[in-house]
């Protein structure tokens, strides 16, 4: 996954943070601080 803002390759635990804010998953780029919201994948 790439940051939309700075284009950095985001690796969990390395340069990005994943935070659950139901029903969203917030992915924060630690390179530029940009936060991106995506919906959590529905579990069956
Ligand atoms: Zn970024």
Numbering strands along the chain, what is their spatial order in the largest sheet?
Answer: 1-2-3
Broad structural category: mainly beta
Q: Write down the overall mean pLDDT.
A: 92
The dominant shape is elongated
Helix content: under 10%
Strand content: 35-45%
Query: What Rg is obtained from the alpha carbons, in whole angstroms?
Result: 11 Å
Order of helices and strands: EEE
Strand tally: 3
User: Helix segment count?
Assistant: 0
Largest sheet, in brief, is: 3 strands, antiparallel
> Which cofactors or ions or other ligands sit in this model?
zinc ion
Number of domains: 1
Measure the end-to-end span: 24 Å
List low-pLDDT spans: none
Blueprint of the fold:
Layout: E1 16-21, E2 24-29, E3 35-39
Antiparallel strand pairs: 1-2, 2-3
This protein binds zinc ion.
Residues 3, 5-6, 8, 29, 31-32, 34 line the site of zinc ion.
Walk me through this protein's architecture.
By secondary structure, the protein is mainly β. The model has no long low-confidence stretch (mean pLDDT 92). The chain has one domain (1-44). It is built from no helices and 3 strands. It has a 3-stranded antiparallel β-sheet, with no helix packed on it. Zinc ion (ZN) binds at residues 3, 5-6, 8, 29, 31-32, 34.
Compose a concise summary of this entry:
This protein has 44 residues and is mostly beta strands.
